[in-house]
Each structure stands twice: as C-alpha cells, then as structure tokens.
Amino acid sequence: MKVKVLPVVLLFLGVLAAYAFAGVRGTAHDFFMRIPELSGYTDKELCRFCHLLRVPGPAATSPPLYNLYQSPTLRAVIQQPNGSSRACLLCHDGSSSLGSIWAGYIGRRLPLGPVSERVSLGGDLSDDHPVSFVYDSSLARRKGSLAEPTILPRQVRLDPRGRLQCTTCHNPHAERFSKFLVMDNSVSQLCMSCHRFQSAGSSYHTSTNTACGNCHRVHGGSDRLLTSPLRRPR
Ligand code: HEC
Ligand code: HEC
Ligand code: HEC
Ligand code: HEC
Ligand code: HEC
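Above: the input record for the complex with heme C. Below: its predicted structure, written as tokens.
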C-alpha cells in the first residue's frame, strides 16, 4: 500500500511546489529581486526564506502579544495569532528587521530593515480584520449574516483546524490578484463569499450596496473597520 501511495504523494507535492515557484518569482515576495544583498541565492532558497523561519511554537515563553480586534457585534472568539498567521506577522508586524529574521539562516547579519511601513500591520491588530479564530456553522448561525463555511469558494480556505487566517484571504505565493489576494475583490467578491446581508438588514447593508471598500478598510480601519469619515455612525 505505502509503496504505491508514496510516488503519488511525491508527485502531488512536486506539482504544488512547481506551482508555488512559478508564482513567487517576480512578486513582492521575490526577496532576491527586491533585495540586492540576497542576489546569489538560488530559487529553492527563496522558499526557505519563509519556510524555515523560526516561528515560536505554542510552548514559547514570550510570544509577541498583539492588541486584538474587538467590537460589540463580534461573535467569534478571537485568539492571539496562531497557525500560519504567525509566520506572516513575523515580518508583517514590522517589529523585526529582515536582517535579524534571516540571520540564523544566512549565517550572517545583513543590513536589512523591517518591511516598509506600507505593508506593516504593527503590533496593534485591533484595526485589522480578525484572524486566528474558528469559523464554523455554529458561528454562522449565531452571526446570522455569514455563509456556511462549508460552501466557501475553493480558493477561500480555512486552515486544517477550521480557522480563518491571513492565508484565507492571501496566498503568499501568487500575485495573480493584487496584494496576493486569493481572488479578485474589485466588486467585493472576496468579502461577500463570507458576508451575506439580507436586503432587509441594517440600513448600511443592502443586497445592492456591495462596495464594502466605500465604508470599510480591512487593515487600518477604525471601529468596525470603518473608514474614518464613518467613524461614529448615526
Ligand atoms: C512570503 C513567504 C513565503 C514564501 C516566499 C514561500 N512560501 Fe510557501 N507558504 C508560506 C506560508 C505562510 C504557508 C502556509 C499556508 C497555510 O498554512 O495555509 C505556505 C504553504 C506552502 C505550501 C502548502 C500548500 C499551500 O499553499 O498552503 C507549499 C506546497 C508551499 N508553501 C511551497 C512553497 C514553495 C515551493 C516556495 C518557493 C517557490 C514557497 N512556498 C515560498 C509562505 C511562503
Ligand atoms: C520573510 C518575511 C515575510 C513573510 C514571512 C511574509 N511576507 Fe509579505 N512581504 C514581505 C516583504 C519584504 C514585502 C515587500 C514589501 C515592502 O517591504 O515594501 C511583502 C509584501 C507583502 C504584501 C504587499 C504586496 C503588494 O503588492 O503591495 C502582502 C499583501 C503580503 N506581503 C502578505 C503576506 C502574507 C499574508 C504573509 C503570510 C502568509 C506574508 N506576507 C509573509 C515579507 C514577508
Ligand atoms: C478577510 C480578508 C483578509 C484577511 C483575513 C487578511 N487580509 Fe490582508 N488584505 C485584505 C485585502 C482585501 C487587502 C487589500 C486592501 C486594499 O487594497 O485596500 C489586504 C491588504 C494587505 C496588505 C497590503 C497593505 C497595503 O495597503 O498595501 C498586507 C501587508 C496584508 N494585507 C497582510 C495581511 C496579514 C499579515 C494578515 C493576517 C494577520 C492579513 N492581511 C489578513 C484582506 C485580508
Ligand atoms: C473567509 C470568510 C471571510 C471573508 C473573505 C471576509 N470576512 Fe469579514 N469576517 C468573517 C468572519 C467569520 C468574521 C467574524 C464575525 C463575528 O464573529 O461576528 C468577520 C468579521 C468582520 C468584521 C467585523 C464584524 C463585527 O461584528 O465587528 C468586518 C467589518 C468584516 N468582517 C468585513 C469584511 C470585509 C470588508 C471583507 C472583504 C475585504 C471581509 N470581511 C472578508 C469572515 C470573512
Ligand atoms: C454605506 C456604508 C457601508 C457599506 C457599503 C458597507 N458597510 Fe458594513 N458597516 C457599515 C457601518 C456604518 C457599520 C456599523 C454599523 C453599526 O454600528 O451598527 C457596519 C458594520 C459591518 C459589520 C459588523 C456588524 C454586522 O452587522 O455584522 C460587518 C461584518 C460589515 N459591516 C461588513 C460589510 C461588508 C462585507 C460589506 C460589503 C458587502 C459592507 N459591510 C458594506 C457601513 C457600511
């Protein structure tokens, strides 16, 4: 049994890897292209620059603690970032220089600063779309305006434990859509694959008013992730 399965599994992983390869090259995550100090590393190493990061495990004594998103209407139980979100935040909370993140791997300290301000979420995640919580049918029922998590589009994936993570909305390997999004969001398709408002719902949300970005900002929004002019509605 094992003998037959293994080659299939290897082939599958190989295809996945080849797919990821083609994607990462030339993107904002192509560190070799963007960071001259790294020229000389091979394609294979590009993957290791994220895949061999020492993300502190659950047993780590002092994981970075972030301010978490909260709101009176939130139903999910939000946790400190876990799973793959921690790998993203290692770079994208902007607290560590890339030089020190990679020092152990490269074997020397490169004069590289943290990610630019533009892509840093900072240590305060209270103004970002919540991540690292279980999105299950029970949450969908309690909220009332969420799709059943079992019918999400194929590209919009929860992690193996059913948790919504950065990787639910972003695929760090491919820039097919801007900002590494997993699908086009030009008419809020990504948002609406999960958020479903009835036309008779709140006055802000009708089935025709679908330009979420007019009022909401998923990163750097204020209360209820709103853009500032709507900070205190009514
Ligand atoms: C910018 C950081 C980053 C780079 C560069 C990167 N990866 Fe990943 N990769 C991740 C993260 C984070 C995950 C975990 C995704 C998850 O848990 O859902 C992942 C997951 C994967 C998976 C599992 C399948 C999936 O898509 O979830 C494969 C296969 C993979 N990476 C291959 C590669 C290969 C091959 C390269 C090099 C060409 C590469 N990665 C470069 C961050 C990166
Ligand atoms: C090893 C560090 C590292 C890791 C890990 C990493 N990134 Fe990045 N990311 C970068 C750098 C460097 C840039 C280039 C931005 C800059 O500094 O201007 C970037 C850019 C981006 C951008 C902006 C793209 C654009 O076109 O503006 C997004 C979105 C992003 N990353 C998401 C993620 C997500 C989601 C994850 C986890 C799945 C992740 N990154 C993991 C280093 C990283
Ligand atoms: C619910 C979906 C969703 C989740 C979850 C999510 N993002 Fe984003 N992210 C977006 C969208 C949509 C944009 C594009 C916003 C825009 O263009 O205005 C974006 C943009 C970004 C950018 C680029 C910022 C810029 O203005 O150029 C970075 C970096 C980023 N996300 C990182 C992350 C990280 C790290 C996580 C996890 C902690 C995460 N995202 C979780 C949807 C999401
Ligand atoms: C993969 C599914 C998914 C996607 C995609 C998604 N969301 Fe969410 N979003 C959720 C879930 C689940 C919650 C938590 C709801 C709760 O617990 O009340 C949430 C929470 C929120 C909240 C806070 C709700 C509150 O009551 O405080 C806002 C605002 C929001 N999302 C806006 C957006 C916008 C705008 C987009 C598109 C960029 C988006 N979401 C994309 C699933 C998603
Ligand atoms: C015209 C402005 C506007 C638009 C467009 C809009 N929202 Fe909102 N949204 C608001 C306001 C204002 C609130 C806070 C409402 C309150 O205080 O009751 C809110 C609250 C929310 C909440 C949390 C409360 C709840 O009912 O769950 C979510 C989730 C949300 N919006 C998602 C979205 C998504 C997804 C879209 C796009 C399909 C969207 N919104 C489009 C203005 C808007």
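Notes for the reader.
Strands lie at 133-134, 163-164.
The longest strand covers residues 133-134.
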